Amino acid sequence: MELFDVLLVFRTMRMSRFHAYLSNLRTIVVSLLWLHSAPGMAATLSVSLDNPPEVGFIELQLYDSANAFVAQLNPVQQLRYPLNERASYLFAGLAAGEYALRVYHDANSNGRMDKNFIGIPIEAIGFSNRYQPKAPPNYRQAAFTIAENQQLNIDVELYQPLGKRGQLGVGVGIIARSSPYRDYEGGVSQGIPAITYIGERLQVYGPLIQYGLVGSGKLRLALSGQYRIGVYEEADSPLLAGMGDRENTFLAGLAIEAELPGDIDVALGYQHDVLDRIGGGVGSLSISKSFQSGIVQYTPQLSLNYLSPDITRYDFGVAEDVATLARPAYHPDSSTSVEVGIRFFSELSREWLLQASINLERFGDEVTDSPIVDEDEVIKGFITIGYVF
């Protein structure tokens, strides 16, 4: 026998022993896991996929907290396996209690869940209870309980959150704000069609629109726009008579958005009056973080707002040709305001979604010094209800 043949036989024997070693090691590990979940020990969760993909990796994340589930941070346990026709995936050593499971298919094997411009997964995902939300997932809908010493088996069905062409929704809503103007106790409100569309880069939320230009996930740049309702009509107050109704317009510009550690979102943007009905524009710097309680996801937000001189004068100034003794001419410069608020989101059902926002905006001196203003702040917000196809 030649030397090459001897080496080949020797290599084959070594590989055979190596595979036998792996097989024995796997048997020992599985046995230890089952012993760990035997009576008097912790619980075991076995997960099977209804529709396992053929290539890539599968990642399973188990959570015991609603806020960790929303932020996708700090799972109790996390498993990752290559797809190889495996029948089930095992979480062992679990304490009795409530959990929610998130599963995703890492199709391109890059070690992360690929998402669209605003953070919606574009790879297949699934949840416990065969929950398939058409909006940000809710911990309560995916939650299940496991008892001490229990060996629980659950099935998960993977799905594409955005489908093949994005997600479309229709509904109705109301935009409203209080009035800071003298001698007027009412406010401004307007009904709107609550049309929503969420695609890989384009998102429409009623009066708001955004298109992703570059980036994704942690840092991104987008075109953004919003419908702006006029702040008053001259019939609202005797003091405003002769001032003319303030027009609605559409603002558009750029926004930089970033996701910081701790699932904190920061956005910086500026939008200009593209219809040139007012001139000028508005800017904002905001910080927000999402939480969950029951079936409601809520997002507190803090913002610093900027109004250009043109818009500040249009909303709060008094031109010479309409000045009176009661409202002397007033030409403010740019102005700033601080705004605190909270957004709410709830799945009324898989298809019906409720969104709402309420904000308190406090003005700076350029606004409060105006002769037509007698309030330092306004309350504003919106509410929409929509059906998602």
- Calculate Rg over CA atoms: 29 Å
Structural class: mainly beta
Binned strand content: over 45%
Unreliable parts? 1-40
Order of helix and strand elements from N to C terminus: HEEHEEEEHEEEEEEEEEEEEEHEEHE
| Count of all domains | 2
What's the average pLDDT? 84
Distance between the termini: 72 Å
State the CATH topology of the largest domain.
Answer: Lipocalin
Largest sheet entry = 12 strands, antiparallel, barrel
What topology, given as strand order, has the largest sheet? 9-11-12-13-14-15-16-17-19-20-21-22
Strand tally is 22
Helix segment count? 5
Binned, the helix content reads: 10-25%
Question: Given this structure, which CATH class of the largest domain is correct?
Answer: Mainly Beta
Structure summary:
Helix content is 14%, strand content 46%. The protein has 389 residues and is mainly β. The protein has a twelve-stranded antiparallel beta barrel with strand order 9-11-12-13-14-15-16-17-19-20-21-22. Strands 2, 3, 5, 6 and 7 form a five-stranded antiparallel beta sheet that branches.
Structure description:
By secondary structure, this protein is mainly beta. The chain folds into two domains: 39-156, Immunoglobulin-like (Sandwich), CATH 2.60.40.1120; 167-388, Lipocalin. Helix content is 14%, strand content 46%. It is built from five helices and 22 strands. The protein has a twelve-stranded antiparallel beta barrel. Strands 2, 3, 5, 6 and 7 form a five-stranded antiparallel sheet that branches. It is elongated, with a radius of gyration of 29 Å.
